[in-house]
What we know:
The protein has helices at 40-48, 72-78, 95-106, 111-116, 133-147, 163-178, 221-236, and strands spanning 2-11, 14-24, 29-33, 54-62, 65-66, 80-83, 151-155, 188-192, 206-211, 214-219. It is an alpha/beta fold.
Amino acid sequence: MLEIIDLSVSIDNKILLENINIKIPQGENHILFGPNGSGKTSLLMSIIGFPQYKVISGKIIFNGNDITNLSIDERARLGIGIVYQNPPGIKGLMLNNFVNKLEEKYGTKLYSYVDKLKMNELIDRELNINFSGGEKKKSEILQILTQNPDFIMLDEPEAGVDVENINLIGNILKEFLDRKKIKNRKKSSFIITHTGYILDYLSADKGYILINGKIVCEGNPYRIFELIKEKGFKECQLCKL
Ligand SMILES: Nc1ncnc2c1ncn2[C@@H]1O[C@H](COP(=O)(O)OP(=O)(O)O)[C@@H](O)[C@H]1O
Ligand SMILES: [Mg+2]
C-alpha cells in the first residue's frame, strides 16, 4: 500500500531524514518508535506532503502511484489520512458546524461517534481552541472517521490523553482499522507511539526505530518495544534484534 524508497528529506538545508526504506502492505499496522527530535513527525509530514519538507532523494509510492511530488490535497484524495500531533485551532469555526459540514460533504453519520467519543460537551466550542490534549485527539479522530481513508498515520495518538480516553480512542481506532475496504481488504496504518498503549488495541505487524533521522532497527514491534523499555534507545542503536 505504502512504499518509501531511499527517502532523504531536508528543511532549511538541514537533513532531517536519511535513506528511509519502509514498506507497509495492505491490511498491516506498522509502528514507529524513536526518541524526541529523531524525525518521526517529519517523516509523517513528508509522507502527507508538507512542501517545506524537501525531498532531496528517493520516492514515496502509494497504491502503485508515485506521490512524491503531489500536493497534500491530492494525497488525501488518494486515501491518505493523518492525525496530527499538534492540530491547529480554528477560531470562529464551531465544532458543531464543522461536523455538519463534514457529514454533508462525505455523506457519513458522525453523531454516533460524537456520542461514542463522549464529545457532546465539546460540540458547542470552537475547533481545537483551548481543547485539552485528549479533546484535540478526539476531534482529529472524528475527522478521520468521516473521511474514511484507506491508510492512516497517527502521530502519538495517546500523548496527553488520560487512560479512559485512550481506551475510547483505542477501541474506535481498532473498529476503524477493521473496516473492510473493497475486495474485503483491510485498511493500513503507520503509528508513532511513545507509551505503547496503542499496541493494546490493534495488532501491530512491524516496528521501526528512528534515531537521528535514520532507521536503526526494524522487526517485531512488541519485541522492539520491550527492548526500548528494558535497554533504552541508545542500546537499540546497536540493534539487538
Ligand atoms: N519546520 C522545522 N524547521 C526546522 N527544524 C525542524 C522543523 N521541523 C522539525 N525540525 C527539526 O527536526 C528534528 C526532528 O523533529 P521531529 O520530526 O518533530 O521529531 P520527533 O517527532 O521525532 O520528535 C528536530 O531537531 C526538529 O527541531
Ligand atoms: Mg513528533
